[in-house]
Design brief:
DUF4390, 6-stranded antiparallel sheet, 3-stranded antiparallel sheet, signal, 3 helices, 43% strand, DUF4390 domain-containing protein
Length: 190
């Protein structure tokens, strides 16, 4: 009797490990970033970038099943120091949620800019409209000094709405490692 239980538990544990290993490698790279840039918008320092989802069929299936996802983009502008840690000059965040309304059969996206939610039956069109060209305000353009080295850093993650921070950094895409967030860094001299 004990041998059967031990074999059954060992088989279940092995199957679970195999599923986790395959899922993490298959879906870890679900977001892609369009390279960021800085712009002067009416005297305001503004980071511009875009986010695309590479695994649209998987995303569509999860949303159709009732999952609500939150995209979080953290943007930081740093003054580069050669011998010490970089100084943060400005930072901002873009947060957007994405879900499916079964009554209207539309995908619904809320943006952090305080705009009304946008809706579309076509998930690709909705993602392009909402995340294709994102702008995050970072403060006054006067924060930049000529001849100084800066670094614009962008980090994105997508999680299930309500998931605790740090629990699974990238729950939707099954990446269980702490380095699963997508990031981009642009170093420049103003």
């Amino acid at each position: 009797m004990k041998t059967k239980q031990r074999n059954h538990m060992g088989g279940c544990a092995l199957a679970l490990l195999a599923v986790l290993a395959l899922a993490s490698t298959a879906l870890a790279q679900g977001l892609s970033l369009k390279p960021p840039s800085l712009a002067n918008v009416n005297g305001r320092l503004t980071a511009r970038f875009g986010v695309a989802v590479e695994e649209l069929p998987i995303l569509k299936g999860e949303l159709d099943d009732g999952l609500e996802l939150v995209l979080s983009c953290d943007v930081g502008l740093y003054r580069i120091n050669d011998y010490w840690m970089d100084d943060e000059v400005a930072s901002g965040t873009f947060v957007s949620s994405l879900g499916f309304d079964p009554l209207t059969r539309e995908y619904v996206m809320t943006l952090s800019r305080g705009e009304p939610p946008i809706r579309d039956r076509n998930i690709k069109k909705l993602l392009d409209k909402g995340w294709g060209a994102v702008e995050v305000g970072l403060g006054s353009w006067a924060l930049l000094d000529r001849g100084v080295k800066y670094s614009l850093r962008l980090t994105t993650s997508m999680n299930e709405k309500g998931a605790p921070d740090g629990f699974m950094s990238y729950f939707y895409f099954w990446s269980w490692s702490p380095g699963a967030e997508n990031s981009f860094q642009l170093d420049f001299t103003y």
